[in-house]
Amino acid sequence: MRLETMTWIEVEAYLSRNRGVILPTGSVEQHGPLGLIGTDAICAREVAWTAADHCGAVVAPELAYAPAPFNMGFPGTVSLDVTLYTELARQVMAGLAHHGFSRIYVLNGHGANLAPLAQAASGVDAQVRLRSWWDFDAVNALREDWYGDWEGMHATPSEVSITQHTHRVIADPGLPAPRKLSPEYIQAHAGDRHGPPEDHRRDFPDGRVGSHSALARPEHGAALLKAAAEAVAADYQTFVG
Ligand code: NI
Predict the structure, then answer these.
(1) Sheet with 20-25: strands ordered across
(2) In angstroms, what is the span from residue 188 Cα to ligand 1's centroid?
(3) Centroid of ligand 1 to alpha carbon of 211 (angstroms)
(4) Which of 170, 145, 168 lies closest to 158 in space, CA to CA?
(5) Is the pTM of this model over 0.70?
(6) Given Cys at both, which of 6, 111, 129, 147 links 192, Cβ 3.0 to 4.6 Å?
(7) pLDDT tens digits, residue range 94-108?
(8) How far is the CA of 90 from the centre of ligand 1 (A)?
(9) Neighbours of ion ligand 1 (CB under 5 A)
(10) Structural domain containing residue 14
């Protein structure tokens, strides 16, 4: 069930028996020449919606706008200040908690959200579980099998595959493989700790960060969505009890 298409009568009835809600979080930012601007938000909400079919959770509207300052050199990116985002996320969770959603399962799709979401959750009177859709073994087995190191860090073939399945395929103009990232680079930039926008665009001129997006396939997206949704539904059920 999606909160936005429920009535308050239906929400009240749900809360008389349940206290769980899934809150998807994403971003509005460039995802390379083959990836949609809304990729992170789309992936998080599609996984949440499919998981809800398995576990009966209510899914709140996704928090799409997010911090992505490093991508502001690319048209279409909209970045929120981290302080504002943290407070926005806290107030959204507090609003849900106010009505009795005391188990808030945050399903994330954007690395830079993790630290502010964890901070926001600490200021809310509810239990919060924070997961990204790629956290699960069954999902990672597919990513490793299909893409290996070419999964990379941004505009990943796995996330592009999901949006190809749910939305559309952008024709590949014959993109070469991106520059391969060193393990040191990946470790130093985990959680999207990238530099200023002008440096980021200079270093990654087409927006891909070590990710070979052209390996994406809609049929991969269908399988990734299924695996992630089943894992999230099981994890959600252990969380709400
Ligand atoms: Ni992404």
Answers:
(1) 58-59, 20-25, 103-108, 127-132
(2) 18
(3) 10
(4) 145
(5) yes
(6) 111
(7) 999 999 999 999 999
(8) 22
(9) 39-40, 159
(10) 3-240
pLDDT tens digits, 123-163: 899 999 999 999 999 999 999 999 999 999 999 999 999 99
CA 28 to ligand 1 centroid distance, Å: 9
Total domains in the chain come to 1
Report the CATH number at residue 21: 3.40.50.10310
Query: How remote is the CA of residue 8 from the centroid of ligand 1, in Å?
Result: 33
Q: Distance from the CA of 155 to the center of ligand 1, in angstroms?
A: 6
C-alpha span between 233 and 220 (Å, rounded): 20
